[in-house]
TrEMBL record:
Residues 222-300 form the Cytochrome-c3 hydrogenase C-terminal domain. Transmembrane segments: none annotated. This is Hydrogenase (NiFe) small subunit HydA. Keywords: 4Fe-4S, Iron, Iron-sulfur, Metal-binding, Oxidoreductase, Signal. Heterodimer of a large and a small subunit. It is found in: Cell envelope. It holds the Pfam family NiFe_hyd_SSU_C. Residues 371-429 are annotated as: Disordered. GO terms for cellular component: [Ni-Fe] hydrogenase complex; cell envelope; ferredoxin hydrogenase complex; membrane. Belongs to the [NiFe]/[NiFeSe] hydrogenase small subunit family. GO terms for molecular function: 4 iron, 4 sulfur cluster binding; electron transfer activity; ferredoxin hydrogenase activity; metal ion binding. The keyword Acetylation does not apply. Its cofactor is [4Fe-4S] cluster.
Amino acid sequence: MATSQPAVVADALDEIHVFWLAGMSCDGCSVSTVGATAPSVEGLLTGNMPGLPKIVLHHPVLSVEAGDEFMEPFHQAMNGTLGKQFVVVYEGSIADERKNDENGGYWVALGRHEVDGDMQPFPTADILQLMAPHAAAVIAIGTCATWGGIPAAAGNVTGSMGLMDFLGADYRSTLGLSVVNIPGCAPQGDNFTETVAAVLMFLQGIGPLPEFDSLGRPAWLFTDTVHQTCTRGGFYEEGIFAKEFGDKQCLVEIGCWGPVVQCNINKRGAINHVGGCMNVGAPCIGCTMPGFPDNFSPFYTKPPGTVVSSTTSKTTGYFIRNLRRFSMMYGNRSNQWNKQGHVTSGWGHVAEPSALQKVAHYFYSAMQFRGSVRPGSRPESKPAFIGTGWGGANEQAGARRPNDKSTPPGFQPDSTGPHADATKELTQQ
């Protein structure tokens, strides 16, 4: 949850600048963001989202400007002279540039700046440090930027870290926001654009403050585990597990960490609700979690906790599975087939229930319809249709039953009108 109540901008924004920086990155976060559809990057950049300001994006790959013209707004944002509200988005982990002090090198840079009279590459970590105090919000996109990710794995020589570790727990933007974290390797694009839109709606005063968990993740996106929304979860419940890649069953026993990983990729899909790791057969390796990759290594091997959970699931699942197959057997039979004693299918032989299965189904049906009316039957205590003429109050007034051809009381035949022949025939029956 947010630790403080951020401020709303005094006046509604017509536009807001977004500065995109990259650290120790593969640019996968940029690629996944371009694939977002709800909302789309195009909608945000063109200002077509109702109530939201137009976004002016400064991206080293997607921007039209280049060279000094491209870098000028960055320098203005660092100096606090941009004159517009802006957001900083950082992808990739932040390497410790102090490790290069001795040799004068750098890990990651964007543009150049003057150092001791010479123009030198400008490390993006230094750019972030100068821009963050003036930013309306700082967003870390991808696991490398949020927690450190692969560049921060054990044994790395870069001293890489996430934005929270770099800026510190006390960091607040000009509007009172801590670092917003959108993890994933790569993150689901809509998770990012949706969060940006939600924050902008709050800053515009037309929506509530989005709820973030204690790690700065959007709570509505990263509360459920992969397992809770997995399309293969039913197999786990019944104790059926994949033995090799390509099997359709639960992937826990071939290296899936889904039960302990907070991620919505199964529910949302990779792009436009299509794809997603487990949906296409890949075990979860925990890429959204702060402990990735070290705490989920080695990949594609059975997690230790599976010994307990899958064994329990196999035991209980055996009984659950067979009970469901029994119910499914009768669900696959029509009443007509039950009466005639065989299934009239030309596609193959369907075995008839055994005597024991029929007895079990009898008691199962008794429990199923306890307190309710079984289809095709009618209680003797009261009519099925009260007051409609089929055994109700209207019958006392002379209403006829469907096969009753007697003349109702007070009926006068029409001997001269257009229906004379029909009424004459009725009175003669």
